[in-house]
């Protein structure tokens, strides 16, 4: 009996050692296959829309590596070892990553391989004022198939947990997840463009769009106030520049052109619907588009089919693709100086709004001509457009409900972030209250902390916004009156006054707003399924202030956060993974979920 027991124990030990060595060996081989697959997949992704690319060999190797990695991590011994404490979490993550790469290689890349060589990035830019719409229609089925596969892969990637894995495995898996996310973003954008551009550019009849040139020197929630305005005409892919105007030339309406909600009136006032300068006080660009369309119709009698906005910083990105442009008046625009020229130098070079508007109109015409005649570097152009959209600097709204529904899932939609199971969406937006062009000197930073500090397990969030003025100490006299506002709206010349709005998830409760540590009254409203708190901050030259807004989130809200913010002249630093010290959180009301400060 003792001998039998010894044999059993010895046999079990041998089996365990064998299993450990088996799994370890296969893990090393699978790791090598996966790490070898990542650069190949990246290379395939970068070449798939290149002119005449042949990715057959790379795709074959990628599919082989992915198949090997999946086989190495799915045998019965491996799956049994997944139940082992600690080691099991590493094995599960590795198996899921191998399966993910296999799905990517077999599902998403074959249709893209078919697409390569027949559709390239040059198709995305006009030549002699016209885009070849037929190429988009032909590419759409293959892009759609790839997009479905990437959407599924992205959902699978979100389920992979690497928090408790060893660094070697966690790093490899994170590379794969990041690759899937980036590939999904690129294909989503190209597929949406292929689906929408034919109809939006006149394949079914002429279209017209209002182009709003935003000015970040006077902030609005989605960038800057609309300054120069142009109408773009599209017919069968041919693009022409129509009427040139400005928001100032349109003037102000006596009554709102569209009915405003109570929340819109509370937060932004009637100017939202009476003055083209103010249509993007709201961070919801679809609403801004509706208002701009209605004001343009009221003022000119012309109905447009959509609205596009772009700011000078994004324009600078695009000039990296086109090269330098003659903006008129002896000024050459480059990717390095575009923002400075439009947001600052123009106000020193041209006296008064009429001369400035004339310069902006001429520059708009020259820039449009440069883009539509072709010749830009295609890849740089697409990357620049993507960067501008990701930074919330380029927006598109279509009056066609079906087209707008597709746009809403893209970065150009300008929609307030929504919350998901994985993250709670916050928006931090700035509207100028100086009535001048001082926001060129305004910089910002946002930090959001979260934690569960209540017995009912509703999470607490603290949103901190730091605003700083870099304006000259003698700004009141050294800057032109048009830039400082000259005290026209009760703001001391040289100071910067800003309305700060934080959009939190619906059923959140804002309960405390401080400026530099002192409690302040604040405005609050429920706006389009978001709880909003707002306050006004004024800075003198060289001054900085920190606004803190505290919220109790809705039950079940994720502690992780996602942020959208107003794009400023410079980058806005953000910190979103902060832990909230519950000792710093004052008691908040729980009887009424909609209760807020006054």
Quote the beta fraction.
15-25%
- Number-wise, the strands total 18
Q: Enumerate the spans where pLDDT stays under 50 for 5 or more consecutive residues.
A: 589-598
Rg, Cα atoms, Å: 28 Å
Q: What count of helical segments does DSSP give?
A: 16
Main sheet makeup: 6 strands, mixed
End-to-end span in angstroms? 82 Å
State the helical fraction: 40-55%
* Average pLDDT rating: 85
How would you classify the helix and strand content by structural class?
alpha+beta
- Shape category: globular
Strand order of the largest sheet: 13-12-16-10-9-18
Care to describe what's here?
- The protein has 598 residues and is α+β, with helices and mostly antiparallel strands.
- It has helices at 2-47, 56-72, 76-81, 87-115, 133-158, 167-200, 247-250, 262-268, 285-300, 312-322, 338-349, 352-372, 378-390, 401-407, 475-478, 481-484, and strands at 207-220, 223-235, 238-246, 306-310, 325-328, 331-333, 394-398, 424-432, 442-452, 459-469, 496-505, 509-515, 518-519, 523-526, 530-539, 544-552, 561-565, 573-579.
- The strands form four sheets. The protein has a six-stranded mixed β-sheet with strand order 13-12-16-10-9-18, with no helix packed on it.
- Strand 9 (442-452) and strand 10 form a beta hairpin.
């Amino acid at each position: 009996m003792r001998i039998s027991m010894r044999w059993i124990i010895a046999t079990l030990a041998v089996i365990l050692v064998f299993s450990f060595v088996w799994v370890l060996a296969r893990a090393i081989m699978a790791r090598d296959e996966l790490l070898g697959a990542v650069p190949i997949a990246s290379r395939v992704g970068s070449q798939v829309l290149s002119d005449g690319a042949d990715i057959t060999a790379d795709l074959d190797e990628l599919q082989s590596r992915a198949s090997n990695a999946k086989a190495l991590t799915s045998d019965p011994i491996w799956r049994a070892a997944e139940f082992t404490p600690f080691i099991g979490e590493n094995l599960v993550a590795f198996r899921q990553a191998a399966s993910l790469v296999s799905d990517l290689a077999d599902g998403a890349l074959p249709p893209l391989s078919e697409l390569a060589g027949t559709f390239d990035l040059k198709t995305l830019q006009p030549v002699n004022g016209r885009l070849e719409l037929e190429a988009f229609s032909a590419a759409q089925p293959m892009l759609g198939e790839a997009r479905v596969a990437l959407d599924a892969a992205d959902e699978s990637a979100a389920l992979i947990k690497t928090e408790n894995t060893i660094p070697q495995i966690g790093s490899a898996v994170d590379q794969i997840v990041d690759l899937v996310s980036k590939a999904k973003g690129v294909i989503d954008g190209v597929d949406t463009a292929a689906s929408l551009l034919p109809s939006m550019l006149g394949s079914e009849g002429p279209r017209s769009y209002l182009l709003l040139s935003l000015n970040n020197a006077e902030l609005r929630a989605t960038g800057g106030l609309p300054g120069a305005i142009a109408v773009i005409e599209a017919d069968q892919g041919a693009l022409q520049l129509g009427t040139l105007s400005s928001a100032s030339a349109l003037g102000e309406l006596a009554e709102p052109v569209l009915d405003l909600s109570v929340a819109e009136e509370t937060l932004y006032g009637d100017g939202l619907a009476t003055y083209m300068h103010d249509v993007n006080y709201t961070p919801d660009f679809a609403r801004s588009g509706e208002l701009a369309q209605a004001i343009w119709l009221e003022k000119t009698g012309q109905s447009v089919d959509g609205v596009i906005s772009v700011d000078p910083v994004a324009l600078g990105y695009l000039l990296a693709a086109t090269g330098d442009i003659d903006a008129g008046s002896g000024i050459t625009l480059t990717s390095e100086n575009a923002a400075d020229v439009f947001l600052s130098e123009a106000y020193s070079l041209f006296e008064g709004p009429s001369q400035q508007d004339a310069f902006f109109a001429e520059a708009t015409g020259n820039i449009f001509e440069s883009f539509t005649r072709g010749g830009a570097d295609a890849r740089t152009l697409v990357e620049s457009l993507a960067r501008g959209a990701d930074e919330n600097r380029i927006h598109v709204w279509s009056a066609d409900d079906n087209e707008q529904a597709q746009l809403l899932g893209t970065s150009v939609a300008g929609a307030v972030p929504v919350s998901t199971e994985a993250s709670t969406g916050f928006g931090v937006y700035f509207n100028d209250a100086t009535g001048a062009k001082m926001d060129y000197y305004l910089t910002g930073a946002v930090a959001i902390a979260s934690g569960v500090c209540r017995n009912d397990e509703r999470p607490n969030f603290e949103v901190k916004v730091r605003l700083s003025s870099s304006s000259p100490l003698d700004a009141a006299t050294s800057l032109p009156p048009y830039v400082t506002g000259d005290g026209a709206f009760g703001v001391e010349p040289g100071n910067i006054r800003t309305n700060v709005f934080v959009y939190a998830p619906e059923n959140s409760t804002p309960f405390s707003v401080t400026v530099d540590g002192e409690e302040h009254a604040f405005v609050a409203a429920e706006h389009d399924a978001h709880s909003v708190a707002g306050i006004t901050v004024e800075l003198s030259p060289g001054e900085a202030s920190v606004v803190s807004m505290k919220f109790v989130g809705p039950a079940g809200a994720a502690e992780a956060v996602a942020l959208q913010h107003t794009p400023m002249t410079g980058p806005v630093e953000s910190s979103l993974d902060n832990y909230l010290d519950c000792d710093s959180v004052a008691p908040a009301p729980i009887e009424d979920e909609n209760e807020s400060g006054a």
